[in-house]
Amino acid sequence: MKTLAVVLGVLVVLGGGTVALVNHYGGWNTLVGKAWAITYEVTTEPAAATPVQIEYTENPDRYKKASPVVVTKSAPAPFTSEVVINAGEKAEITATPNAGQALKCRILLDGVKELATATAAPGQKVSCTTVTGT
């Protein structure tokens, strides 16, 4: 019985020390990150096979708390990309059309819940922005 009490005492001390250390460094979410699954979409009217310029933010690693990076690419619309954005960070997509095209963008959570949407006039840049919850 005495051995069990000693083992339990050691476990309590180790557990308490671990909790104190994690809290000292800002908690589990700060150490390992809390991330959101974001889907970016860009569509165009009229439909065209020519590429549009697209810029969007993403986190390079879902398991580390870090600022998002900007990805720039030229891609045909409709465009879809699934990325990870850490909690409390800005999710943003901007697209520049070819002459005469009207673009629409959307930001979706888990590919379903619409967080932001915008439609631009023909020939104008479109941008969708939201900040993920903490």
Descriptive notes:
The longest helix has 23 residues, at 2-24. The strands form two sheets. A four-stranded antiparallel β-sheet has the order 4-1-6-7, with no helix packed on it. The chain has 134 residues and is α+β, with helices and mostly antiparallel strands. Helices cover 21% and strands 47% of the residues. It has helices at residues 2-24, 28-32, and strands at 35-45, 51-58, 69-76, 79-86, 90-96, 102-109, 113-119, 126-131. A hairpin with a 3-residue loop joins strand 6 (102-109) and strand 7 (113-119).
Task: Kindly summarize this structure in a few lines.
The chain is of the alpha+beta class and 134 residues long.
Which strand-content bin applies to the residues? Answer: over 45%
Overall spatial form: elongated
Can you tell me the residue ranges where pLDDT is under 50 for at least 5 consecutive residues?
18-22
Strand order, sheet with most strands: 4-1-6-7
Give the N-terminus to C-terminus distance in angstroms: 45 Å
What is the total tally of β strands? 8
Count of DSSP helices?
A: 2
- Percent range for helical residues? 10-25%
Major sheet: size, sense and barrel closure? 4 strands, antiparallel
Mean pLDDT: 82
What Rg do the Cα atoms give? 22 Å
Broad structural category: alpha+beta
Q: Element order, helices and strands? A: HHEEEEEEEE
